[in-house]
Amino acid sequence: MIRARPRAFPFRTSVQSQKQERPRVDRRSGSGRRDATQTIGQTAIHPQCHKKKNPAPRRGTPSPSHAPETRPQKTLRYLNPTAAPPLLSRFPTLHLLTRICTLFLAFFITAHIFMEYFYILTAAYGISMLPTVASSGDWLLISKYYRRGREVRVGDVVSYKLPLKPGENGVKRVVGLSGDFVEVREAVVEEGEDGRKVMGSRPRCLQVPQGHCWVVGDNLAWSRDSRIFGPLPLALVTGKVIAKWSWSSWVPEWGRVEHGLKPAEEIDWEVD
């Protein structure tokens, strides 16, 4: 029996086909570039096949063609406190009136706090403090530090709430504090030696009770003071006169308003 010899195949073995030939380098150019074609096994590959493909976009990252358009960021109003609100910016007159009302309200609140707890400027009226304080034209600066009789001394001129007329204030001089003795002379009608009735006085000594003071006006003949309503409670004292200013003198008189406690008839003064 004759065996047939196996037919020889024209291709190389599997081991030889898997070997890749090294690419030929053009040494004349010196740039190290590969030739136009490369042989891998028995197949010719174009150099464009070696270019890397565009990597696939990651999940969740938009592609450049589908990227959202960037919009200009809006400036929030609360980030710019100087900017006027939209409603007021449309109406300039309303915006101006709002600012004026705000400034007026702030001034009113500040003035109220200043006059209630610090100082107050008030006009003088009446003749009970003549000639120290004129009946008209004088202005008194009153300090609220001395309210309720705080650090008040004998001889100070204080402002107080009238005990007989609620809602009204008065200005008198302090002549006695708690524990002091005050002599009060009451006017009485007496008979003279010839039988005629004459005006006289009867002295009476009083002690000022605790928590009170005794106030009188410099014009004793025309003053309604503690001789009428009795000792004044210190709780009614609203302040102390620390300066006087008049139209005749532009310079205010600071310090204690000094004057003797004697009848006005003994002092030279003029009344308009």
TrEMBL record:
Residues 19-36 have a biased composition (Basic and acidic residues). It is an enzyme of class 3 (hydrolase). GO terms for biological process: protein processing involved in protein targeting to mitochondrion; signal peptide processing. Residues 1-78 are annotated as: Disordered. GO terms for cellular component: mitochondrial inner membrane peptidase complex. Keywords: Hydrolase, Membrane, Mitochondrion, Mitochondrion inner membrane, Protease, Transmembrane, Transmembrane helix. It comes from the Eukaryota. Gene3D superfamilies: Umud Fragment, subunit A. InterPro entries: LexA/Signal_pep-like_sf (IPR036286), Mito_IMP1_subunit (IPR052064), Pept_S26A_signal_pept_1 (IPR000223), Peptidase_S26 (IPR019533). GO terms for molecular function: serine-type endopeptidase activity. It is found in: Mitochondrion inner membrane. It holds the Pfam family Peptidase_S26. Residues 103-245 form the Peptidase S26 domain. The chain crosses the membrane at residues 96-114. The active site is at 128, 172. Its EC number is 3.4.21.-. SUPFAM superfamilies: LexA/Signal peptidase. Belongs to the peptidase S26 family. IMP1 subfamily. This is Mitochondrial inner membrane protease subunit.
